[in-house]
Amino acid sequence: MADHCESPSLVISNSKTAIIGAGFSGIAAAKQLCHHYPIVFEASDCIGGVWKSCAYNSTKLQSTRKNYEFAEFPWPNRNDPSSPSKLEVLDYLESYAKHFDVLKFINFNSKVVELRFARPLVGNAGYCWPWDQPSQGQPVWEIAVQTKDSDNLKCYAFEFVVVFIGQYGDIPKIPKFPSNKGPEIFKGKILHTIDYCKLNKEAASQLLEGNKVVVVGYKKSAIDLAVECAQANQGAEGQPCTMVVRTPHWIAPNHWFFGLLFSFFYTSRSSELLHERPNQTIFRTLLCFLLSPLRRGVSKLMESFLLWKLPLKKYGLKPDHPFEEDIASCQMATVPENFFAEADKGNIVFKRASEWWFWEEGIEFDDNTKTTADVVILGTGYNGMKKLKTILPEPFRSMIDYPYGIMSLYRGTIHPLIPNMSFVGYVESVSNVGASELRSKWVARLMDEKFKLLSTEIMAEQTLREMELMRRRTKFFKRPCIATFSINQADEMCKEMGCQL
Ligand SMILES: Cc1cc2nc3c(=O)[nH]c(=O)nc-3n(C[C@H](O)[C@H](O)[C@H](O)COP(=O)(O)OP(=O)(O)OC[C@H]3O[C@@H](n4cnc5c(N)ncnc54)[C@H](O)[C@@H]3O)c2cc1C
Ligand SMILES: NC(=O)c1ccc[n+]([C@@H]2O[C@H](COP(=O)([O-])OP(=O)(O)OC[C@H]3O[C@@H](n4cnc5c(N)ncnc54)[C@H](OP(=O)(O)O)[C@@H]3O)[C@@H](O)[C@H]2O)c1
């Protein structure tokens, strides 16, 4: 690392704390850690993260305002049931950042390209046993930063690093194809939704209008894009947009009664009684077992409502799995009001396919059917793990997603074996901003030595049990999701910190 750094190679900053990323999570952390005068490194030239880099002109908040707010800074119109636009969401974040005066900590256009552990790797397993060893004011991590104005890297040293680089954005997930069946043989245009987000309104509608567009995916990015595509193709000259659906998941309408049912059965303290929690007592395990018919009944009730409200059967989009599996994996997307209206007009068509590949004129499916296309847009999601692994050094890089291939974090925040580093924004629940704010507060109290961590072994054991529970609850175990026990976990974290919710 030092070879590429500007001279003097190491900037020993006045701050002992670095924050990487200035999305919702990084800004929440800057507020909670402001008494440490952190240095925030942000790769782009603004705050907002995914709300700047991977949202469309039509993107709206899919959570309610109350479920997407900082406890210490409520939305001005928090009872308004309408969905705020991306500009309103960005305004809200900016107001928060200005209100708590955290913008002064941010170094924009400063991309962290490498982290290096500044201590000798010692201990039984060949690396330092973390968290037990006080840093005694000495640097633990070195950070190499690429800025816009120099070809050389700037290197900094810190005692504590908080990573908030986000699970989405930056690195798209691109499907793999058999040889001679990939993008290279397709005559049309191929892009990922992250590229589409960079287009202005005019360029976006030029791309879609009058063209046969295939959108791959059936989650929020793909669903919203299909609606934008349908709207650009109204009238006789319009072309239908084809959505390639690999797994139909339960999708939610923006409907007041659904919202009411959902909050009552899934986001209330009493609703968590029905669901297993990590590291629960035998008594609670028994209670959950006895209540499991009720839990399944609630799931069925939600399914019946959705099948009544949305034409899922008509379009072959009825999921094969229970509703509760989508909740336990944080997989549910909200559909814009006009999504099925556009399908009814024939402007959106659905193609179920487990496998697909390119041919010269379009896409071919595993049932030997083909469709022609001028443009193929991949709404296939993001590779957040790759983004993180790019900057983490070994042996930590290999530990971070061991053993399940997804982030395994104690309290959704620290890895028991990665010292003086925390990660926020990697667990999902119904209330992502609240979760990031609480975790940032927890990290701040930990750094202020307001409470002590459990031993490394106990934290590792509890983390594994939590991951095991998430895995048991859903076959779509792709990201850490605490939706069914987030209130309980927040209570536990508050107790640990000595505060109340
Ligand atoms: C389009 C979209 C809409 C969403 N809508 C909702 C919603 O309605 N409700 C909900 O609950 N959740 C939603 N989410 C989930 C969303 O990810 C979180 O709600 C939240 O905004 C994530 O914030 P974050 O700060 O953790 O990550 P991000 O917003 O991804 O911010 C990470 C920041 O880190 C910076 N960064 C990355 N790498 C580096 C580096 N190496 N060096 C320096 N800086 C770096 C990035 O530039 C970025 O600014 C949405 C996600 C997307 C993609
Ligand atoms: N507020 C908003 O309006 C908004 C807008 C956009 C995104 N978001 C959020 O941003 C996050 C990312 O969402 P996302 O929709 O971009 O990604 P995502 O949730 O990861 O969904 C990816 C989609 O692509 C499909 N897919 C992946 N590879 C495929 C392949 N090879 N063939 C066919 N289909 C494939 C997946 O199918 P499988 O299910 O089969 O894997 C899934 O339907 C989510 O948290 C989402 O809620 C929010």
Automatic annotation (TrEMBL):
Transmembrane segments: none annotated. It comes from the Eukaryota. Its cofactor is FAD. Belongs to the FMO family. InterPro entries: FAD/NAD-bd_sf (IPR036188), Flavin_mOase (IPR000960), Flavin_mOase-like (IPR020946), FMO-like (IPR050346). Keywords: FAD, Flavoprotein, Monooxygenase, NADP, Oxidoreductase. Its EC number is 1.-.-.-. This is Flavin-containing monooxygenase.
